[in-house]
Amino acid sequence: MNAWHAIAAACRAGHDALRAALADPAAAQVARLQDILAANAASATGRRHGFAAMRGWDDYRAAVTVSGYADLAAELERMAAGGCGGLTSAPAVACEVTSGSGGAAKRVPYTAAGLAAFRRAIEPWLFDLVRSRPRVADGRAYWAISPVGRRASRAAPGAPLGSGDDSLYLGPALAPLFAQLLAAPATLGQMSDVAAWRYHLLRHLLHAEDLGFISVWSPTFLLLLFETIVREGDRLAYDVEHGTFSWPTVDAAAPPVRFEPRPRRARTLRRALAAGHLDATNLWPRLDTVSCWTHAGAAQFVGDLERYLPGVHLQGKGLLATEAAVSVPLEEFAYPVLALHSACYEFIDGAGASRLAHQLEVGARYRVVVTTDSGLYRYDLADTVLVRGFAARTPMLEFVGRAGLIGDLCGEKLAEDFAAIALRGLNGFAMLARDPERTNAYVLLLDAREYDDRAAERAALLVEHRLHGNPHYAYARRLGQLGGLAAVRVHDPLAGLVARGLDRGARLGDIKPTALDPSTDWREYFTVVPSQDERTEPARAARRAEGVTP
Questions:
Q1: CB neighbours of 5 closer than 8 A, spacing ≥ 6?
Q2: What CA–CA distance (Å, rounded) separates 221 from 317?
Q3: Measured between alpha carbons, how far is 482 from 465 in angstroms, rounded to an integer?
Q4: Nearest Cα to Cα of residue 484 among 469, 456, 463, 470
Q5: Which of 207, 230, 376, 518 is the most exposed place for a label (fewest CB within 10 A)?
Q6: Tens digits of per-residue pLDDT, 376-418?
Q7: Which strand (E) or helix (H) includes residue 289?
Q8: pLDDT band at 143 (very low <50, low <70, confident <90, very high)
């Protein structure tokens, strides 16, 4: 039995339990709620709200109000620093840092029970993956978990998440098995120099000819790797051929490594680069499946990834927020299913009413509220999901955007999920942002490699037409309160996206492409390509000054 099959065996019980629960989500969720309330009844929060006397959802929702991070920040900080008894009866064993829509860092502590709840979402997925995509078991894996580009956050009572000790996520049974499969050492995640880390990672991956599975969060993570192969192809080929490492900077956190010379592998890389467009399956012919986000803002990059990886199965991830796992992909279903055993879930409809999993309607959108083992009670994730159907009686969910990410310059109330629909079909990177030069207008940021000036203008007209589907936007435009959408071509937008994400405290692998960014700081990170008119007018002015007829 190889490590993949051992992982499947260890995860089978979790898969079977979820699969059986799909027929009765109401019962599964009531049981989860009672477990969480009983475990934390002795905490200060539990005593204040009377957890011990609660008999179900009605009691719970009547006593506890929906809250956001700001409402709990002080208590979460105390918990992350080692305080016990406030939100939970058990102490935090680890803490993660994430960034919100506005970039403010949030510290999210976990109890041991909270980490186990995450694993109850991971286990069904892993068993299903090996069963449904058996070829992944023939090779090694690249699994992007650890943070890169920032320091991991430490919880006083325990180890930090994402510092190479991924057993905190995977658990003591799965972590050693995954260690046997990794195509690159987990300790690479301790590096802070992103460019050096990316080159280190590629050196390892290029040696892993048997790579069969990749798990990342954003597709942009992989696209930047492929772009680095193209840009640094000659250097990489030389180093692969000679067993050297010629990257000019050295990160003190980089793990020491010796590479064997691989002349044949270097020839394969050079042939792949000479083809004009990189087909990464020539480098990794056994690559069967890539797991990444494919919905909401990530959807615009799926086509680019498919061009690099023709024939490779792209599996959309479920909704796994830092605070809680919400849904899990199973191959037999078209969309991820609610992770019934990981947390308790409520869904806020358009009228503000709370619905439970068995009360949802196909085609409706809801805002997700979770209750977790780690002390988040009726916590508003600010994520919007669309119900795509049912697996037995359990909803299948598509993540469609951040509910709290709203553009509202003059009452137009643009939401990210609506913006994502308006950007569908555009090539490569596309994002709506506030225009820093016009206080009442938006710009459409586009990849300059995909669009020339005229194509960018046509794209802006198309998106503008779609935005008029929002009556508030259309009304603001008719009144002249809102200016027209302007196209802005930017150079290497993925690099800008990553730089901004790292500055905001996000992990490299977690940086999310968004369809809408209501901030104006994008100019600090994205390099604007001047339009043809902007390029020619200074030249004409210079010629006129010299007495030369334009």
A1: 130, 137
A2: 14
A3: 14
A4: 463
A5: 230
A6: 999 999 899 999 999 999 999 999 887 766 777 776 778 887 8
A7: strand 289-292
A8: confident
Residue whose C-alpha is closest to residue 517's, from 427, 426, 402, 380: 402
Asked if residues 493 and 526 have their Cβ atoms less than 8 Å apart, the reply is yes
Q: How far is CA 66 from the centre of its chain?
A: 24
| Main-chain phi, psi angles of 333, to 5 degrees | -115, 145
Residue 129 and residue 271 in one domain = yes
- What pLDDT digit, counting tens, does each position of 242-262 carry? 999 888 876 666 767 788 999
Task: Report which of 300, 295, 253, 481 is spatially closest to residue 402, judged by C-alpha positions.
Answer: 295
Number of domains in the chain: 2
Residue 220, domain member (yes or no): yes
CB neighbourhood size of 29 (10 A):
24
Please compute the mean of the pLDDT values over residues 522-546 and round it to a whole number: 63
Q: Give the whole-angstrom CA distance, residue 130 versus residue 54.
A: 41
Q: In this structure, what token pair is assigned to residue 203?
A: 């050196």
* Residue 67 DSSP label: B
Quote the pLDDT of residue 301: 81
Which structure tokens are listed for 257?
A: 């490594």
Q: Which residues contact 306 (CB under 8 A, 6 or more apart)?
A: 312, 314
Residues 260 and 121 in one domain: yes
**Structural domain that includes position 481:** 406-537
Q: State the Cα–Cα distance between residues 353 and 20, nearest whole angstrom.
A: 29
Q: Are strands 344-348 and 365-371 parallel, antiparallel or unpaired?
A: antiparallel
DSSP 125-182: HHHHHHHH-GGGGGSEEEE--S--SSPPP--TTSPPTTSS-THHHHHHHHHHHHHHHB
CB 310 within 8 A of CB 526: no
Integer Cα distance of 502 and 510 in angstroms? 10
Question: In this predicted model, what pLDDT tens digit does every residue of 450-498 receive, in sequence order?
Answer: 999 999 999 999 999 999 988 778 867 876 778 899 999 999 998 888 8
